[in-house]
Write a structure and sequence with these properties.
Blueprint (H helix, E strand, L loop, with lengths): L2 H28 L6 H21 L3 H22 L19 H22 L5 H25 L15 H22 L4 H21 L5 H25 L2
Length: 247
């Protein structure tokens, strides 16, 4: 463990969250209700991209996890307190007529990051860090794209019982494409696979992400999508590495 390195990483992480979270909350407080969805989804993208700082700058998995838990628990407490003041910008980042979803979403993120970091970084080792990143990124960009496209362009609802009746085919396809693109970009920096393997893994992650997101209800996709993508990607990665070794 490198204390100085972890201290710098901790400061970077706090600076990153403050630099994006505060402007998003302020912007949302100024927008009419019909235009708040993009700012809500901006939080998802912000949270997902922070995984790059977490994986690149912290020296150990347990120092990274400790820092994340401290920041997120403090954030949850502050949000709960600020919700008591209706003029606080954070209360504006919510679905119409509903209580702010930020505390529950932070709780889901705590669970997801704890599970993924402990398993893929702590147990599996540094070389499997990228599986954490692709799960988080697939959720962040995939969910945001699915929601925005589905609400603005979605016409055909997914009628199968396994899916959330509010999700649309257009949104699901957009989510799959965006998640695949985001995962591929992430793999370019993190993955030990060659480009063909990265493409296959990215497409797989995008499809899994969109299907799980479409079947998840009441915001639980924050929990289900990253866990599903990361754990399903593990055996796919092993298969791709095996075939790469044959050539």
């Amino acid at each position: 463990m490198n204390f100085q390195q972890d201290l710098v990483a901790f400061a970077l992480l706090i600076g990153y969250y403050l630099a994006f979270a505060i402007p998003i909350a302020l912007l949302s407080s100024l927008l009419p209700e019909a235009k708040k969805e993009p700012t809500r989804k901006s939080y998802h993208i912000m949270a997902s991209l922070s995984i790059i700082i977490i994986l690149r700058f912290f020296s150990t998995w347990y120092s990274a996890l400790a820092a994340i838990l401290l920041i997120l628990i403090i954030a949850m407490i502050l949000v709960v307190i600020l919700e008591k003041f209706k003029a606080a910008p954070v209360t504006k980042v919510k679905r119409s007529s509903k209580k702010s979803e930020i505390p529950s979403q932070i709780g889901f993120i705590i669970i997801v990051l704890s599970v993924l970091i402990i398993f893929f970084w702590g147990i599996m080792g540094n070389e499997y860090q990228f599986l954490i990143a692709i799960g988080i990124v697939a959720w962040g960009v995939g969910d945001a794209s699915s929601a925005l496209v589905g609400k603005s362009l979605g016409r055909e609802k997914l009628k199968q019982r396994v899916f959330d009746g509010k999700k649309t085919r257009e949104g699901t396809i957009a989510g799959a494409l965006a998640a695949s693109a985001g995962v591929f970009a992430t793999l370019l920096f993190f993955s030990p696979l060659a480009i063909p393997g990265q493409i296959v893994l990215a497409i797989t992650a995008g499809i899994v992400s969109s299907l799980v997101e479409a079947s998840s209800r009441k915001g639980i996709d924050t929990l289900t999508v990253p866990l599903s993508v990361s754990f399903i990607s593990l055996p796919v990665f092993f298969i791709l590495k095996f075939f790469e070794g044959l050539f």
